[in-house]
Specification:
By secondary structure, the protein is an alpha/beta fold. The chain is built from 14 helices and 11 strands. The strands form 3 sheets. A 7-stranded mixed sheet has the order 4-3-2-6-9-8-10, with helices on both faces. The chain has a two-stranded antiparallel sheet with strand order 1-5. Helix 12 runs antiparallel to helix 13 and helix 13 packs antiparallel against helix 14.
Length: 403
Protein backbone atom coordinates (compact mmCIF):
# COMPACT_ATOMS: atom_id res chain seq x y z
CA UNK A 1 0.00 0.00 0.00
CA UNK A 2 2.83 2.36 0.85
CA UNK A 3 4.40 1.67 -2.54
CA UNK A 4 1.12 2.41 -4.32
CA UNK A 5 0.71 5.62 -2.34
CA UNK A 6 4.20 6.76 -3.33
CA UNK A 7 3.52 5.97 -6.99
CA UNK A 8 0.24 7.89 -6.85
CA UNK A 9 1.97 10.85 -5.20
CA UNK A 10 4.72 10.82 -7.85
CA UNK A 11 2.16 10.79 -10.67
CA UNK A 12 0.31 13.69 -9.11
CA UNK A 13 3.54 15.66 -8.86
CA UNK A 14 4.34 15.02 -12.54
CA UNK A 15 0.85 16.15 -13.55
CA UNK A 16 1.22 19.39 -11.61
CA UNK A 17 4.64 20.08 -13.22
CA UNK A 18 3.23 19.41 -16.69
CA UNK A 19 0.35 21.78 -16.05
CA UNK A 20 2.70 24.54 -14.84
CA UNK A 21 4.97 24.05 -17.88
CA UNK A 22 2.01 24.24 -20.25
CA UNK A 23 0.79 27.46 -18.65
CA UNK A 24 4.27 29.02 -18.89
CA UNK A 25 4.55 28.13 -22.60
CA UNK A 26 1.10 29.61 -23.24
CA UNK A 27 2.12 32.84 -21.53
CA UNK A 28 5.35 32.97 -23.55
CA UNK A 29 3.53 32.45 -26.85
CA UNK A 30 1.11 35.23 -26.01
CA UNK A 31 4.03 37.58 -25.33
CA UNK A 32 5.47 36.75 -28.75
CA UNK A 33 2.35 37.56 -30.75
CA UNK A 34 2.87 40.32 -33.34
CA UNK A 35 2.98 43.62 -31.56
CA UNK A 36 4.67 41.97 -28.60
CA UNK A 37 2.11 43.27 -26.13
CA UNK A 38 3.98 46.56 -26.15
CA UNK A 39 2.35 49.96 -25.93
CA UNK A 40 3.26 53.03 -27.91
CA UNK A 41 3.55 56.24 -25.90
CA UNK A 42 5.49 58.97 -27.62
CA UNK A 43 8.14 60.02 -25.12
CA UNK A 44 9.18 63.67 -25.08
CA UNK A 45 12.72 62.80 -23.96
CA UNK A 46 14.40 60.51 -26.49
CA UNK A 47 16.99 59.05 -24.14
CA UNK A 48 17.84 58.48 -20.50
CA UNK A 49 19.68 61.49 -19.02
CA UNK A 50 23.35 60.80 -18.45
CA UNK A 51 23.43 57.59 -20.47
CA UNK A 52 23.56 59.18 -23.92
CA UNK A 53 25.27 62.11 -25.55
CA UNK A 54 22.65 64.46 -27.01
CA UNK A 55 22.60 67.75 -28.86
CA UNK A 56 19.62 70.09 -28.91
CA UNK A 57 16.14 69.29 -27.63
CA UNK A 58 13.27 67.12 -28.83
CA UNK A 59 10.47 68.68 -30.83
CA UNK A 60 6.77 68.35 -30.22
CA UNK A 61 5.04 65.01 -29.92
CA UNK A 62 1.59 64.04 -28.70
CA UNK A 63 1.31 61.16 -26.23
CA UNK A 64 -0.26 58.05 -27.68
CA UNK A 65 -1.34 54.78 -26.13
CA UNK A 66 -2.71 51.68 -27.71
CA UNK A 67 -1.98 48.12 -28.61
CA UNK A 68 -1.32 46.85 -32.10
CA UNK A 69 -3.11 43.86 -33.50
CA UNK A 70 -1.69 43.38 -36.98
CA UNK A 71 -4.05 40.61 -37.94
CA UNK A 72 -6.98 43.02 -38.01
CA UNK A 73 -7.59 46.42 -39.55
CA UNK A 74 -7.78 49.37 -37.15
CA UNK A 75 -8.40 52.64 -39.04
CA UNK A 76 -7.11 54.70 -36.09
CA UNK A 77 -3.85 52.73 -35.81
CA UNK A 78 -0.85 55.00 -36.14
CA UNK A 79 2.15 53.93 -38.20
CA UNK A 80 5.56 55.01 -36.93
CA UNK A 81 8.22 55.97 -39.48
CA UNK A 82 11.79 56.99 -38.55
CA UNK A 83 14.51 58.72 -40.56
CA UNK A 84 17.96 60.11 -39.77
CA UNK A 85 19.01 63.34 -41.52
CA UNK A 86 22.48 64.86 -41.32
CA UNK A 87 24.39 67.22 -43.58
CA UNK A 88 22.67 68.23 -46.82
CA UNK A 89 19.73 65.86 -46.47
CA UNK A 90 16.88 68.23 -45.64
CA UNK A 91 15.26 68.39 -49.10
CA UNK A 92 15.70 64.68 -49.71
CA UNK A 93 14.13 63.81 -46.35
CA UNK A 94 11.17 66.13 -46.91
CA UNK A 95 10.56 64.58 -50.34
CA UNK A 96 10.54 61.13 -48.74
CA UNK A 97 8.02 62.30 -46.13
CA UNK A 98 5.84 63.81 -48.90
CA UNK A 99 5.79 60.48 -50.73
CA UNK A 100 4.69 58.73 -47.51
CA UNK A 101 1.84 61.20 -46.99
CA UNK A 102 0.46 61.21 -50.53
CA UNK A 103 -0.79 57.62 -50.63
CA UNK A 104 -0.96 56.36 -47.03
CA UNK A 105 -4.29 55.55 -45.41
CA UNK A 106 -3.77 55.28 -41.64
CA UNK A 107 -2.26 58.13 -39.60
CA UNK A 108 1.52 58.54 -39.61
CA UNK A 109 3.92 59.60 -36.88
CA UNK A 110 7.33 60.71 -38.14
CA UNK A 111 10.34 60.31 -35.84
CA UNK A 112 12.98 62.59 -37.34
CA UNK A 113 16.53 62.40 -35.98
CA UNK A 114 18.48 65.40 -37.22
CA UNK A 115 21.43 67.63 -36.47
CA UNK A 116 20.62 70.76 -34.49
CA UNK A 117 20.92 73.16 -37.42
CA UNK A 118 18.18 71.27 -39.30
CA UNK A 119 15.52 71.28 -36.57
CA UNK A 120 13.94 74.65 -37.29
CA UNK A 121 13.88 74.02 -41.03
CA UNK A 122 12.09 70.73 -40.52
CA UNK A 123 9.55 72.36 -38.20
CA UNK A 124 8.85 75.20 -40.62
CA UNK A 125 8.29 72.82 -43.54
CA UNK A 126 6.26 70.23 -41.65
CA UNK A 127 3.97 72.85 -40.15
CA UNK A 128 3.00 73.81 -43.71
CA UNK A 129 1.89 70.27 -44.59
CA UNK A 130 -1.90 70.39 -45.05
CA UNK A 131 -2.78 67.04 -43.49
CA UNK A 132 -3.53 68.02 -39.92
CA UNK A 133 -4.69 65.01 -37.92
CA UNK A 134 -3.21 62.50 -40.35
CA UNK A 135 0.42 63.35 -39.66
CA UNK A 136 2.27 64.02 -36.40
CA UNK A 137 5.99 64.31 -35.90
CA UNK A 138 8.73 64.45 -33.28
CA UNK A 139 12.17 65.87 -33.96
CA UNK A 140 15.08 64.42 -31.98
CA UNK A 141 18.74 65.27 -31.60
CA UNK A 142 21.37 62.86 -32.88
CA UNK A 143 21.94 60.54 -29.94
CA UNK A 144 24.66 57.95 -29.23
CA UNK A 145 25.93 56.23 -26.09
CA UNK A 146 28.13 58.82 -24.36
CA UNK A 147 31.19 56.62 -23.92
CA UNK A 148 31.48 55.90 -27.67
CA UNK A 149 29.53 58.71 -29.36
CA UNK A 150 32.37 59.93 -31.59
CA UNK A 151 33.12 56.44 -32.89
CA UNK A 152 29.51 55.67 -33.74
CA UNK A 153 28.85 59.04 -35.38
CA UNK A 154 31.73 58.72 -37.86
CA UNK A 155 30.94 55.10 -38.79
CA UNK A 156 30.34 54.89 -42.58
CA UNK A 157 28.33 58.10 -43.28
CA UNK A 158 27.67 60.81 -40.66
CA UNK A 159 24.90 59.69 -38.29
CA UNK A 160 24.04 56.57 -40.34
CA UNK A 161 24.51 54.26 -37.35
CA UNK A 162 21.81 56.15 -35.42
CA UNK A 163 19.33 53.56 -36.69
CA UNK A 164 20.99 50.88 -34.56
CA UNK A 165 19.96 52.68 -31.38
CA UNK A 166 16.32 53.37 -32.21
CA UNK A 167 14.99 50.44 -30.12
CA UNK A 168 16.89 51.83 -27.12
CA UNK A 169 15.85 55.46 -27.63
CA UNK A 170 12.19 55.02 -28.63
CA UNK A 171 11.50 52.77 -25.65
CA UNK A 172 7.74 53.20 -25.77
CA UNK A 173 7.26 52.64 -29.49
CA UNK A 174 6.23 49.06 -30.20
CA UNK A 175 6.90 48.85 -33.96
CA UNK A 176 8.71 51.11 -36.39
CA UNK A 177 9.57 51.46 -40.07
CA UNK A 178 13.05 52.93 -40.52
CA UNK A 179 13.99 54.29 -43.96
CA UNK A 180 16.99 56.12 -45.38
CA UNK A 181 16.47 59.70 -46.57
CA UNK A 182 16.74 58.59 -50.22
CA UNK A 183 13.59 56.45 -50.10
CA UNK A 184 10.40 57.19 -52.06
CA UNK A 185 7.10 55.43 -51.35
CA UNK A 186 5.19 54.59 -54.52
CA UNK A 187 2.34 52.89 -52.65
CA UNK A 188 0.84 53.35 -49.16
CA UNK A 189 3.09 52.87 -46.15
CA UNK A 190 0.19 50.75 -44.84
CA UNK A 191 1.19 47.97 -47.22
CA UNK A 192 4.74 47.48 -45.94
CA UNK A 193 3.48 48.04 -42.38
CA UNK A 194 1.19 45.03 -42.86
CA UNK A 195 4.25 42.74 -43.02
CA UNK A 196 4.34 42.96 -39.22
CA UNK A 197 1.31 40.69 -39.25
CA UNK A 198 3.23 38.13 -41.30
CA UNK A 199 6.07 37.75 -38.79
CA UNK A 200 6.21 34.34 -37.17
CA UNK A 201 6.92 33.97 -33.46
CA UNK A 202 10.71 34.32 -33.87
CA UNK A 203 10.95 37.19 -36.38
CA UNK A 204 11.82 40.67 -35.12
CA UNK A 205 12.64 42.65 -38.29
CA UNK A 206 12.19 42.65 -42.07
CA UNK A 207 14.58 43.73 -44.81
CA UNK A 208 15.17 43.06 -48.51
CA UNK A 209 18.18 41.27 -50.03
CA UNK A 210 21.17 43.37 -51.01
CA UNK A 211 21.19 41.73 -54.46
CA UNK A 212 19.04 39.40 -56.50
CA UNK A 213 21.86 38.27 -58.77
CA UNK A 214 24.86 36.68 -56.95
CA UNK A 215 27.17 37.34 -59.92
CA UNK A 216 27.01 41.07 -59.17
CA UNK A 217 26.54 40.76 -55.40
CA UNK A 218 28.90 42.69 -53.16
CA UNK A 219 28.79 40.64 -49.96
CA UNK A 220 29.24 37.24 -51.56
CA UNK A 221 32.23 38.52 -53.58
CA UNK A 222 34.01 40.94 -51.27
CA UNK A 223 32.79 40.79 -47.66
CA UNK A 224 35.36 39.96 -44.97
CA UNK A 225 32.74 39.24 -42.34
CA UNK A 226 29.64 37.03 -41.95
CA UNK A 227 26.51 38.17 -43.76
CA UNK A 228 22.91 37.04 -44.05
CA UNK A 229 21.86 34.54 -46.70
CA UNK A 230 23.35 34.33 -50.19
CA UNK A 231 23.87 38.02 -51.00
CA UNK A 232 23.36 39.84 -47.69
CA UNK A 233 20.60 42.28 -46.74
CA UNK A 234 20.12 46.00 -47.33
CA UNK A 235 19.12 48.10 -44.33
CA UNK A 236 17.78 51.16 -46.20
CA UNK A 237 14.24 49.93 -45.52
CA UNK A 238 13.95 48.18 -42.15
CA UNK A 239 10.67 47.20 -40.50
CA UNK A 240 11.08 46.46 -36.79
CA UNK A 241 9.02 44.96 -34.01
CA UNK A 242 11.01 46.87 -31.41
CA UNK A 243 9.33 45.21 -28.44
CA UNK A 244 10.71 41.87 -29.62
CA UNK A 245 14.11 43.40 -30.41
CA UNK A 246 14.41 44.74 -26.87
CA UNK A 247 13.47 41.36 -25.38
CA UNK A 248 15.57 39.09 -27.55
CA UNK A 249 18.88 37.51 -26.56
CA UNK A 250 21.09 37.19 -29.66
CA UNK A 251 23.46 34.40 -30.57
CA UNK A 252 26.91 35.71 -31.53
CA UNK A 253 30.49 34.68 -32.25
CA UNK A 254 32.03 36.65 -29.36
CA UNK A 255 30.73 34.77 -26.35
CA UNK A 256 28.67 31.61 -25.69
CA UNK A 257 26.33 33.84 -23.67
CA UNK A 258 23.49 35.39 -25.66
CA UNK A 259 23.41 39.19 -25.54
CA UNK A 260 20.58 41.69 -25.77
CA UNK A 261 20.47 44.46 -28.37
CA UNK A 262 22.05 47.10 -26.17
CA UNK A 263 24.83 44.72 -25.10
CA UNK A 264 25.87 43.37 -28.48
CA UNK A 265 26.41 46.52 -30.59
CA UNK A 266 29.72 47.78 -29.17
CA UNK A 267 31.39 44.33 -28.98
CA UNK A 268 30.42 43.74 -32.62
CA UNK A 269 31.94 47.06 -33.66
CA UNK A 270 35.15 46.38 -31.76
CA UNK A 271 35.56 42.94 -33.32
CA UNK A 272 34.72 43.84 -36.92
CA UNK A 273 35.48 47.55 -37.37
CA UNK A 274 38.58 46.80 -39.49
CA UNK A 275 36.61 44.40 -41.70
CA UNK A 276 33.38 46.29 -42.41
CA UNK A 277 32.78 48.61 -45.37
CA UNK A 278 29.13 49.62 -45.09
CA UNK A 279 29.10 50.41 -41.38
CA UNK A 280 25.88 49.70 -39.52
CA UNK A 281 24.46 47.65 -42.41
CA UNK A 282 27.39 45.25 -42.09
CA UNK A 283 26.78 44.93 -38.35
CA UNK A 284 23.15 44.05 -39.03
CA UNK A 285 24.27 41.44 -41.55
CA UNK A 286 26.58 39.89 -38.97
CA UNK A 287 23.83 39.89 -36.36
CA UNK A 288 21.27 38.19 -38.60
CA UNK A 289 23.86 35.72 -39.93
CA UNK A 290 23.96 34.33 -36.40
CA UNK A 291 20.20 34.72 -35.88
CA UNK A 292 18.63 33.99 -39.29
CA UNK A 293 15.39 32.83 -37.73
CA UNK A 294 14.82 36.40 -36.53
CA UNK A 295 14.58 38.01 -39.99
CA UNK A 296 11.65 38.25 -42.38
CA UNK A 297 12.85 38.90 -45.94
CA UNK A 298 10.56 40.85 -48.24
CA UNK A 299 10.85 40.99 -52.06
CA UNK A 300 13.11 43.34 -54.01
CA UNK A 301 10.35 45.71 -55.19
CA UNK A 302 10.10 46.94 -51.58
CA UNK A 303 13.67 48.27 -51.79
CA UNK A 304 14.41 48.86 -55.49
CA UNK A 305 17.87 50.33 -56.14
CA UNK A 306 19.93 51.16 -59.24
CA UNK A 307 21.64 47.76 -58.98
CA UNK A 308 18.31 46.21 -59.93
CA UNK A 309 18.42 47.70 -63.43
CA UNK A 310 21.85 49.13 -64.38
CA UNK A 311 23.24 45.66 -65.17
CA UNK A 312 20.01 44.50 -66.77
CA UNK A 313 16.66 44.05 -65.05
CA UNK A 314 17.08 41.57 -62.19
CA UNK A 315 14.09 42.27 -59.91
CA UNK A 316 11.46 40.02 -61.46
CA UNK A 317 8.82 40.98 -58.90
CA UNK A 318 9.09 44.63 -59.98
CA UNK A 319 8.73 43.65 -63.63
CA UNK A 320 5.43 41.97 -62.77
CA UNK A 321 3.95 44.41 -60.25
CA UNK A 322 6.02 47.57 -60.46
CA UNK A 323 8.27 49.22 -57.88
CA UNK A 324 6.74 49.67 -54.42
CA UNK A 325 9.58 51.56 -52.71
CA UNK A 326 12.32 53.32 -54.69
CA UNK A 327 15.76 53.63 -53.09
CA UNK A 328 17.97 56.17 -54.83
CA UNK A 329 21.24 55.33 -53.14
CA UNK A 330 24.63 56.67 -54.28
CA UNK A 331 23.11 60.11 -54.82
CA UNK A 332 21.29 59.22 -58.05
CA UNK A 333 18.46 61.69 -57.36
CA UNK A 334 20.92 64.56 -57.66
CA UNK A 335 23.13 63.76 -60.67
CA UNK A 336 22.64 62.65 -64.27
CA UNK A 337 23.90 59.07 -63.88
CA UNK A 338 20.42 57.55 -63.44
CA UNK A 339 17.85 59.93 -64.96
CA UNK A 340 15.04 57.43 -64.41
CA UNK A 341 15.48 57.62 -60.64
CA UNK A 342 15.89 61.37 -60.76
CA UNK A 343 12.67 61.78 -62.75
CA UNK A 344 10.62 60.07 -60.03
CA UNK A 345 12.30 62.14 -57.32
CA UNK A 346 11.69 65.45 -59.13
CA UNK A 347 8.05 64.57 -59.83
CA UNK A 348 7.26 63.93 -56.16
CA UNK A 349 9.34 66.89 -54.96
CA UNK A 350 7.51 69.28 -57.29
CA UNK A 351 4.00 67.96 -56.69
CA UNK A 352 1.81 70.38 -54.72
CA UNK A 353 -0.51 68.81 -52.16
CA UNK A 354 -4.11 69.07 -53.30
CA UNK A 355 -3.36 69.23 -57.02
CA UNK A 356 -4.79 66.63 -59.36
CA UNK A 357 -2.44 63.64 -59.17
CA UNK A 358 -2.99 62.56 -62.76
CA UNK A 359 -2.23 65.90 -64.38
CA UNK A 360 0.30 67.19 -61.84
CA UNK A 361 2.20 64.00 -61.04
CA UNK A 362 1.56 61.02 -63.30
CA UNK A 363 1.54 62.67 -66.71
CA UNK A 364 4.65 64.84 -66.17
CA UNK A 365 6.44 61.83 -64.71
CA UNK A 366 5.69 59.57 -67.65
CA UNK A 367 6.89 62.23 -70.10
CA UNK A 368 10.19 62.50 -68.25
CA UNK A 369 10.61 58.74 -67.95
CA UNK A 370 10.16 58.32 -71.71
CA UNK A 371 13.23 60.54 -72.18
CA UNK A 372 15.42 58.05 -70.30
CA UNK A 373 15.09 55.04 -72.59
CA UNK A 374 18.72 55.42 -73.71
CA UNK A 375 19.79 54.13 -70.26
CA UNK A 376 19.57 50.59 -68.88
CA UNK A 377 17.06 51.61 -66.20
CA UNK A 378 15.14 53.72 -68.71
CA UNK A 379 14.59 50.66 -70.89
CA UNK A 380 12.36 49.29 -68.14
CA UNK A 381 10.85 52.67 -67.21
CA UNK A 382 7.35 51.17 -67.07
CA UNK A 383 8.23 49.40 -63.80
CA UNK A 384 8.84 52.88 -62.34
CA UNK A 385 5.32 54.08 -63.13
CA UNK A 386 3.23 50.90 -62.94
CA UNK A 387 2.66 50.91 -59.18
CA UNK A 388 2.40 54.66 -58.72
CA UNK A 389 -0.35 54.68 -61.37
CA UNK A 390 -2.22 52.01 -59.42
CA UNK A 391 -1.70 53.94 -56.17
CA UNK A 392 -3.26 57.06 -57.69
CA UNK A 393 -6.20 55.06 -59.02
CA UNK A 394 -6.74 53.41 -55.62
CA UNK A 395 -6.52 56.76 -53.84
CA UNK A 396 -9.24 58.29 -56.03
CA UNK A 397 -11.36 55.19 -55.56
CA UNK A 398 -11.12 55.52 -51.77
CA UNK A 399 -12.07 59.20 -52.00
CA UNK A 400 -15.10 58.37 -54.14
CA UNK A 401 -16.33 55.78 -51.62
CA UNK A 402 -15.85 58.24 -48.80
CA UNK A 403 -18.16 60.85 -50.28
Amino acid sequence: MRRLARVALLCLGCAVCSLLYGLSQLALSLEQEPGGGGRERQAREPATPGAWRQAGSAGRGAAESGRYDYMKTHPSEKMHLAVVACGERLEETVTMLRSAIIFSIKPLHFHIFAEDQLHESFKDILEEFPYEGKVNYTIYPITFPSESAAEWKKLFKPCASQRLFLPLILKNVDSLLYVDTDILFLRPVDDIWSFLGKFNSTQIAAMAPEHEEPRIGWYNRFARHPYYGVTGINSGVMLMNMTRIRRKYFKNDMTPVRLQWGEILMPLLKKYKLNITWGDQDLLNIMFFHNPESLYVFPCQWNYRPDHCIYGSNCKAAEEEGIFILHGNRGVYHDDKQPTFRAVYEAIKNYSFGDDLVHSLLQPLERELQKTTHTYCGRVYKVFIKQITKSVRDLYARRSKGR
